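Hello,

Our lab assistant flagged a job as stuck in the queue for most of the afternoon. It eventually completed. Since we weren't sure the result was trustworthy after the delay, we are filing this so someone can double-check. Below is the sequence as submitted and the structure that was eventually returned. Let us know if re-running is recommended.
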Amino acid sequence: MSTLRSDQDSPWKDILRQYFQDAIAFFFPQTAARIDWHRPHEFLDKEFQQIAPEAAIGKRYADQLVKVWLRQGQALWLLVHIEVQAKAEAHFAERMLVYHLRIFDRFHSHATSLAILCDANAQWRPNHYHVGNPDTELTFRFGMVKLLDYRDRWTELERDRNPFAVVVMAHLKAQETQRDSQQRKEFKLGLIRRLYEQGYERRDILNLFRFVDWVMILPKGLECEFWQELKAYEEERRMPYISSVERMGIEQGIEQGIEQGERSLVLRLLKRKVGVLSESVNAQINALSITQLEALGEALLDFSSLSDLDEWLMEQEP
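-- returned structure --
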C-alpha cells in the first residue's frame, strides 16, 4: 500500500497558479470564453485570507480568489474552490454562499463561484444552496465539476493537450491505485513518458512532473525503480530533463513550501489566539524546526495568553 501525503492541497495550489488559464478553459469553458486573457489576472491572496480566515485551517482546500477582466472591459472576481480530500459535507453549499457574500461585501461585485471536487463519492454533488419561506426565497447556484466523472472520458483525456488533462489523470490513478503500488509506479512512469512523447516543453514537463510526483507517492523501493527506469528512458530519447540534481531541487522546493506554509499558518493562528507577537517571539518561532512547528500548532489550541506561548517556547530551549 502506498503512503499518502497529508498536504494534498499544496500541489493543487501550485499547478492551479501555474496554469490558471488552462484550468478555467478545461473545467469551465463558458466562463473562460468570457475572459480577456490578454489582460493579466491577479491572485488576491491577502484579500481572500481576510474574507475567509477559516479556510487556512486544515489541509483540505486549495482556494484561489482571482481578479480577471471580461472581454467587455469589466473586472470579474473568480472564486475557485478545490475540495482536495472531501467527504460529504452538509454545509458545503452554504460555505460557498458565505464566501460569495463576503466577496460581494468586500468588492461590491458578484463573483463567479466555481468548485472542483476531488473526492471519491459519486453521489455527493453540491452545486446550489436554497432557502425559502413564504416571504423570502434565495437560490444560489455555483459551477461544479467532479473529477470522478472523467473516469468515463479517459480516451478524451489522453488526446487532450491541456495540462489539466494530465492533472486529472494523475489524480484519478492516484485514487485508483491506493492499494496497488506496483500498478501506481507503472502508470506514473507511463504518464511522464506521455509528456515527452506529446512534445511538451521542458518547463511544462518539470511543472507537471512535480504534481504527478507529489500525488502519486511510491514506497522507497518502487520509487528507486521508477527513477532508474525514467533515467534510462530519458537517456534513450536523449532528453535528460529531470536530472538527479534537479529532482533533489524539486523535493527541497516542495519541503520548503510546506514549511513556509506551516510557519505562516501557525503565526496567524497565534495572533488570533493570544494577540500581536513581538519581534523577538516571531524570531523564536521562525527558528523552530518543522517538527516543533507541528507541535506548536497542536499546543496553541490550549493557549489563553502570551505567557502560555512564552512558557512553551522556554520548554523548547536546549
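-- support follow-up --
The delay was a queue issue, not a problem with the job. The result is valid. The longest helix spans residues 244-274. The CA atoms of residues 7 and 59 lie 6 Å apart.
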